[in-house]
Specification:
OB fold (Dihydrolipoamide Acetyltransferase, E2P), alpha+beta, SNase_OB-fold_sf, disordered N terminus, Nuclease
Length: 241
């Protein structure tokens, strides 16, 4: 009996603790509800002053706010204001060195060449082997003009060791007949075969003086011997008797 009584006495305090815990746990929700009700009443009474605070947008934290700019004083001189303002670094181009001019190449002095006069014209000779005809109105290439003048490859040749009458300048019929005969004989001599022309002086507008020969026999001497020409400088009135 004594043990049962002691057991009943020990259980009594446990029941009291459980009641206290249950009573404390039941008051907490009511306290929260009461605080929320009071907050709602206060918010309702001061709604006009709370509404602008809720309408303000939250300002995002930007780089400008995160990195404060230096403060520029109003009373600072212009130079200090320029130093205080942030400046962006600009890459300054470095001057490029100018290329050096190429070294001057020395050029040798050119000595003037003196013109060497050609050798004596008598030593110059040329051999002709073309066919000739009488000169007409066209271009004179290889043709006979009169008893002492002909063209060889476009160059006017004057036989230097003789003088014969000219058809267009004849003073009488006898001189005109001699002029035609000399012209015909010179054409026959030129077409008889190769001949040699040796220079006898400088070329002039009137023609290049040449001594024309074949096998050492001059054409001028042959025409003189045949009575169709005369020596240079001799009188020609004998053809007009």
């Amino acid at each position: 009996m004594a043990k049962t009584a002691t057991r009943g006495r020990r259980k009594a305090p446990a029941r009291g603790k459980s009641k206290a815990r249950s009573s404390g746990g039941g008051l907490l929700p009511w306290a929260v509800i009461g605080i929320a009700a009071i907050g709602g009443i206060v918010a309702h009474d001061h709604w006009k002053s709370i509404q602008p605070m809720l309408a303000r947008p939250s300002t995002p934290i930007t780089r400008d706010t995160a990195e404060p700019r230096p403060v520029v004083r109003k009373d600072a001189p212009p130079k200090q204001v320029a130093l205080a303002a942030p400046t962006s670094k600009v890459a300054v181009p470095q001057p490029q060195p100018l290329p050096l001019p190429p070294a001057a190449i020395p050029t040798p002095m050119i000595q003037p060449i003196k013109a060497v006069p050609p050798p004596a014209s008598a030593a110059v000779s040329q051999t002709g082997t073309v066919a000739f005809g009488y000169c007409g109105q066209g271009a004179h290439i290889n043709c006979v003009g009169d008893g002492g003048v002909f063209w060889y490859k476009g160059d006017k040749i004057v036989i230097a060791d003789m003088a014969s009458p000219v058809v267009d300048q004849a003073r009488c019929d006898g001189e005109r007949r001699v002029a035609f005969a000399a012209k015909s004989r010179l054409l026959a001599l030129l077409n008889a075969g190769p001949f040699t022309m040796k220079a006898a002086g400088k070329a002039e507008p009137s023609g290049a003086p040449r001594v024309v020969s074949r096998d050492g026999r001059s054409f001028g001497v042959q025409l003189i011997n045949e009575g169709l020409a005369r020596k240079p400088g001799a009188a020609g009135s004998a053809w007009c008797a």
